Amino acid sequence: MIIDLLLREHRNIDLLLVALQRELEIFENGIRPDYEVIRAIISYFEVYPEMYHHPQEDLIFSKLKARDPDAVAIVGDLALEHREVVDRLHHFARAIDAVLADRDLFRQDVGNIICDFILRERHHMMWEERDFFPAALKALSAQDWTEIASALTNDGDPLFSEPAAATSDALRAHILQLEQEAEAERSSVALSSAKDGNP
Hints:
Helix content is about 85%, strand content about 0%. By secondary structure, the protein is mostly helical.
């Protein structure tokens, strides 16, 4: 079912947010984070949620609006939520690009931007799971879900194809592998420093 896939994607997204949180903690401790990991996470968010995840939610929302306008009034404005998600992502990406270009930025400002992105992304997913998904499951008919799935595939959206799922999973696995390698390298450097008597 489409909602199950969306929930699975939320779990995938949260795994990346955990990796990003780890890099933020390192950054906040005054150590250089692994910007390859951070950039890979930004790239994932620029492509997968924006191109595939949000459009299917938008289709569900438009069906919900037609089927139960009162529920939509209670749930809120999904289109606005998605615009805000995209704006936060672009703000985050610009901050990281500025850091990598050695532009003058306050460390605290960059940390706040990353932290805000993580917190609000989690809040957005929680809102969808708590309010939007249950309202859609309650109001939409089996025919509605069939039409939603059909509209996605008819538009050439590869979301429901095996290659798309494999690509998404492979990209997520690659990002998490980068995070593990960065963590191993940091542990190795810390161990080496401890052996040399450096704090």
